[in-house]
Amino acid sequence: MYRALRRLTSLNRHFSTMSYNATYHVGTGAVLDYASGYMSQKFGPEVINYFSGSPINRVSFLRGNTAFLSAALPLSKFMLLNNTWDPLSNSAENLYFANYSTVEKLIGNPYSVPEDELIAAYNSTLPVPPTLLFLGLDESDNSSGFKYTSYSGQPYFAIAVGDWDPKVENTEWRRTRLDLKLVRGHAAMLAQARTLLDWNSRNVFCSMCGGRTVSVNAGTKRVCPGTDNGKALIECKSRVGVHNIAFPRTDPTVIMAIVNSIGDKVLLGRQRRWPEAFYSTLAGFCEPAESIEEAVRRETWEESGVKVGRVVVHSSQPWPYPASLMIGCIGEALPGGEDIHLGHDPELHMADWYDIKFIREMLAKPARGLDEGPPEGFKEGDIRLPPSTAIAHQLLLAVSNNFHGGLKI
Q1: Could you confirm whether domain 250-400 is CATH 3.90.79.10?
Q2: Is-contact 85 191, C-beta < 8 A?
Q3: Where is the Nudix hydrolase domain positioned along the sequence (predicted)?
């Protein structure tokens, strides 16, 4: 993208000296470092945004193995989420994880029988058990002693406990959507749990026949059972062929830092409901049969009137509210297509081009979220930008740093 992209080659020497922690483990704090690889040296370090960089191996192929899940259950740690999917936490930085003894009466052992027997035994007159989700294994932590064939580590589950209160001292249900202060590993695990538990709650009925569905595959699939309390149910196409399972959804969303054609300004917008002087990059949902690049161009033009040419993908960020995947991009406005016009889509209240040097200065200042007041040191003429936990911040940082990276959160 313009001259700065051609300068990437000269940055290889700089990249080879950088240390970047790619994966964070809950148990020991061990890391994997990708910085010495060829691609990191060529393109720069990978940017791992907030809500990503999970410390656990999901071992997704074992989710249907009830022998594995049953063995893991009594040695597992459990994330607890309430009716609004807020997690029980020890502090603003750390989640609380319960032992099996704390939740045993609540969940029992749903993996004591194979899945096909569980589905066949479905009985709608019985109470619906709490949704239980297997998150994965922290392979760096062997303190539990769990081992199944060649797989070992600390197993983690998440449970939708509703209004049940475990009455654990010094804990609270934290509104994590407004308070993005969790350590990286806990934030990533929460994103996985919150997204899947929310999906389960929205899909308790079959979209084909309207009957109740059953959660299987450790909380990552739902099926329409053929019987209820031993009686055959009406025929349903969802039980035939490739239609027999409902999978979780992910909504692709583009978010983009758009630079002008000569590369010295970046486009920012603000919505009417945002705090005074708060600006961010533009964003919008991808539509069916639309590429990422096309979505960037369409959303930018619809919201601001600016016409975009070249688009490159920078990084991505899961956003579990409820199930978005933010695809961070950098785009270049076409010469002659930089005039701002807000008359197409009323989403933005204001939009303007800002000098990248000014943006660099604003990024260096303290930042606070949308729900908080101005940061310390904020003065007349400044603008507020998203904090480093937001991918918008990372995109602006990349633009300010010649497109070659972001900030370690």
Answers
A1: yes
A2: no
A3: 248-376
Domain residue ranges of the chain, discontinuous segments joined by +: 60-243, 250-400
Query: Tens digit of pLDDT for each residue in 220-246?
Result: 999 999 999 999 999 998 888 766 678
Is a pLDDT exceeding 70 seen at residue 21? no
Torsion of CA 67, 71, 72, 73, to 10 degrees: 100
* Mean pLDDT across the chain: 88
User: Phi/psi at 360 (nearest 5 deg)?
Assistant: -60, -40
- Is the pLDDT reported for residue 3 higher than 60? no
Distances (CA, A) of 400 to 227, 304, 354, 386: 60, 21, 12, 15
For residues 2 and 260, give the distance between their C-alpha atoms in angstroms, rounded to a whole number: 10
Separation in Å, CA 220 to CA 61, 121, 185: 11, 20, 21
The DSSP call for residue 79 is E
pLDDT at 405: 45
Does residue 70 register a pLDDT over 50? Answer: yes
Mean pLDDT confidence for 75-104 = 96
Cβ–Cβ < 8 Å for 55, 24: yes
CB-based contacts of 217: which residues, under 8 Å, 6+ apart? 63, 64, 115
Residues 6+ apart with CB under 8 A from 146: 71, 72, 75, 76, 137, 152, 153, 154, 155
The DSSP secondary structure of 257-286, one letter per residue, reads EEE-TTSSEEEEEE-TTSPTTB-B-EEEEP
* Residue 135 near residue 156 (C-beta atoms within 8 A): yes
Question: Residue 136: helix, strand or coil by DSSP?
Answer: strand
Of 323, 316, 284, nearest in space to 394 by CA: 316
Q: Which tens digits make up the pLDDT trace of 282-308?
A: 999 999 999 999 999 999 999 999 999
Copy the structure tokens of residue 408: 């370690």
The residues facing 332 across adjacent strands are: 259
CB of 155 closer than 8 Å to CB of 134 = yes
Return the structure tokens found at 321. Answer: 């509210």
